[in-house]
Amino acid sequence: MMDEAVLRRRALFCTVGVAVLFVAACSDRPEWIVVPQEQPAATRTLLLLTGPSTGAYAPLGRALADAYNRRLPRLHVTAQSPEGPRGAGENAQAVEDGKADLGFSRADLAFQAFRRSGGGASHLRSIAVLYTNAVHVLVRRGSGIKRGEDMRGRRVQVTEDAAGGPLARFVLEAYGLTLDDVQSVDNPRNAVARLKSGELDVRVFASAYPLPGIDDVSESSAIKLLSLAPDVVERLRSRFSFFKPTVIPRGTYRGQTADVQTVGIDGLLLCRDTMPEDLVYELTRGLFEAIHDESPAQNFTRLINTSNAPATPVPLHPGAARYYRERDLFR
Q: Which of 59, 146, 224, 281 is within CB 3.0–4.6 Å of 319 for a Cys-Cys bond?
């Protein structure tokens, strides 16, 4: 004889079975049947720090954020340009400090931030090498400067901080000059305009090219680009591993009739080590899928060499490293 508990379970099973058959047989769903609704996927917001609106990082950042938002519906990425004249120089430290999720930075500045934060104890990680920022030595045409040594005694913009780093000082030292040999100008605002107006003689900076703020370097223009001497290029490379020989091809800027020989510094896309591996994997994949998109950043994405993407001085995030391993991009 069955016990009372078994009988209750059988009765319940039969009742549920009848209810299921009844629902399946009805063409119109009864109002008392509650159908669970699919919950929308959670959206994660990310802040991407780019660069000033007049530079290369700003349009690239906007295009990349748009690409991520199209390809990864569970993400909402906002591209933000830094306020003030400090450019993208502080982005690496902002990512290190947790003030941003992603950021563009130069390899030299990112490595300095990584080292300042204790190296192995740093939260800073790389997703990819983007492209090489060419060092531009922009000179006032009426200054009489025809070669680097002629900068002695001239007004040289020097920005010894996180925004510009000691780049101008490095170039001066490669020519055998020190900051005491020039008139140092610390104000980084409106440098091209001040060159044209005669308030400044030399501006040294690194950027993708063409930089929108430089409209003309022809003989009739008030400014020109200076090539670095071969021995200066070698001196910079032997002293600092992040420099590489770079050419700004003729025709890059209006009136530029010859190649400009210089050095370059890689630009990086950075994140924090606390970001989940799967998320960084998707961000890395999304970056390289977006490279050939038609966008305002097309002039700059054309400079990205995917084979160089893992070659970063800051450790790769495991999610990015997995993407490169799967595509055999490690050398």
A: 281
